[in-house]
Amino acid sequence: MTATATAALPIRYVVLGAGAIGASVGAQLDRAGYDTVLVARGAHRDAIARDGLRLLADGVDERRRIAVAGHPRELTWSGRDIVLLAVKSQDTADALAGLAEVAPPSTPVVCLQNGLRNEAAARERFTDVYGVMVYLPSAYLTPGEVVNYAAPARGVLVLGSHPGGVGALGPELAETLTAAGFTARAVPDILAWKRRKLLTNLGNAVDVLSGLGDGFLDAIDLLGREAEAVFAAAGLPVVDRDVFAAQVDGQRLAEIPGRPYPGGSTAQSVLRGGTAPEVGEFNGEIARLGRDHGVPTPANSLVAALVDEVSRGIRPARGLPLHILLPRLRKAALAA
Questions:
Q1: Per-residue pLDDT tens digits for 67-76
Q2: Sign of the CA dihedral 65, 69, 72, 75?
């Protein structure tokens, strides 16, 4: 599925969910010459249709005149389409329901998502499903604009078939994504990679509550230790920390003029005036697995409850200083 091969066997990439991750990947595919269409909503969709997608990245500030639709039903579907599912995990069920109304069940669905349950949900409706470990710091805060902070590669994408193996399309997908500027490879154990990535995503709740100041990494470490204990009790493999670190080694946050890094995607949703139910797919998932396997998860349960208060307007986003939150997490962990 290189650009040359695409001319002989035209593949169209349909990015379902053109937020920070989806728009970043879609823009890179479009830049590399691949047939790409974004599916976006509301003002974001209108801005892209009117003015194109503004892409800001390391050394890049340009507008991509990329095709955009408001819903999968607006597209004509064929056997040449590959769906890149990039909605938030809490929106997966609705997105798949809308997609299944119009796309053939054999359509490959590639889950460019954090969390651990999206691939299984996609497999209930589609027969060829891939998961992706996404390491791509990016931002969508303004309609019609995406900022990709990843450098020197445009991000790291490790993918594999669900429930296992690299899949028939895995190596070709990795080749395509590499040609589009990413560091990408296919692996046979994608869920083990995604569990390792989830350990970092547990910090999204801390970002929502307190931001990225001193003590942030200590909080992530505490939440991660709980999660690792849960995965061990459940018999769920996790990619080794050093193997994961080697895969993303050399990547850095680029400085984009006028666009300081705003934090993780969950905090971005809150900053756009939304809520943070995604935490339920991260910290909440660890709490659920902990209950199922008899492992206490007081710290993850606490941050999930506190973020719920942010979503309900009881407390402000980033209004709980880390020097207050971190002792509360430690106290909860010791009391378990």
A1: 999 999 999 9
A2: negative
Residue 62 has pLDDT above 80, yes or no: yes
How far apart (Å, rounded) are the C-alpha atoms in residues 15 and 295?
38
Q: Quick check: 51 and 63 in contact, CB under 8 A?
A: yes
Q: Which of 235, 227, 210, 204 is nearest to 298 (CA)?
A: 227
Is this model's pTM higher than 0.85 or not?
Answer: yes
Q: How far apart are CA 211 and CA 157, in angstroms?
A: 26
CA distance 251 to 241: 16
CATH number for the domain running over 3-188 = 3.40.50.720
Domain span(s) for CATH 1.10.1040.10 in the chain: 195-335
DSSP state for residue 207 in the 8-state scheme: H
What is the spatial distance between Cα 308 and Cα 42, in angstroms, rounded to a whole number? 25
pLDDT at 6 over 60: no
Helix axis angle, 216-234 to 190-201, nearest 10°: 140
Pick the CATH number of 195-335 from 3.10.300.10, 1.20.1200.10, 3.40.50.2300, 1.10.1040.10: 1.10.1040.10
pLDDT in tens, 201-240: 999 999 999 998 899 999 999 999 999 999 999 999 999 9
pLDDT confidence of residue 275: 57
Which residues of the chain are in CATH 3.40.50.720 domains?
3-188
